[in-house]
Amino acid sequence: MEHDFDKTPSYFNTEEAFEKYLGMTSYYLGLQKCAEKLIRLASPKSVAELGSATGATCIRLAKRFSDVRFVGIDMRADVVAIATSLKENLSNLSFVVGDMTQFVKQPIEEDFLLMLYSYHHIIDPLANKVDFLADAYHNMKKGAYLCIAETFIPDSASGLSDKDAILRLWSTRKDEGFASTFWNALNALDTDSIIKTQAIAEYCGENEYLAGKLVAERNDEFLIQPAWLIEKGKLAGFNVILNQAINSIEDRIILFRK
Ligand SMILES: C[S@@+](CC[C@H](N)C(=O)[O-])C[C@H]1O[C@@H](n2cnc3c(N)ncnc32)[C@H](O)[C@@H]1O
To answer: pLDDT digit string (tens) for 56-75?
Structure first.
């Protein structure tokens, strides 16, 4: 089986790759679970997930909240096709091909915008991310939420180009990717299964570390620091409802409200 694992989004190229690797890590599953808790608290009528990839998060949420309408938006037609085929007969969920930076330039009906590992894909320069926040604030309804859930460069780093701090963090993320994938993938206590699981976990850990190198080079992975996002969100007009780490390897949720 051939896959292009050169960059993080490629985990989302096929359902099979996603299920085997990133979809089993503690950090991905942790963010999903926390986003679910926040949706339960906010009790929106409708949710738009921006950068919905193969739809794992939207599908999970649409099953949990059958009276909430969900739409998943992604710019790649191939992953939208996968998501659409996986949603089966869930009538409260649809997927569309679209650019999230354009989506926020129109009046936004949904009262909860969820971005799980997608805000950092708004490409440099950082002004593009600032414009996104301003557009979202302008076009969201009063009381609507914007939830940004992803990995951040730590505030303790000296800046976005502090490669040492970034690579140090990603070497820990590599270990966590390995460990959590190993234990989540292990489903039979026979030797073959353990060896196979070991290979999957190594692949996941190594690819997480490769993603960290891209983060350090700002190559396809344009991560930011929490303090920066809080400052720019406030400048756009948002109230900060939550700014909370979900683990010790810098996965975090920032929840804004208009
Ligand atoms: C890491 S994945 C998101 C995973 C997904 N939210 C989940 O929970 O499974 C990032 C996704 O954002 C999408 N993306 C990046 N830039 C985008 C844009 N400007 N508009 C729409 N989608 C975008 C990519 O195609 C990719 O599928």
So the answer is: 999 999 999 999 999 999 99
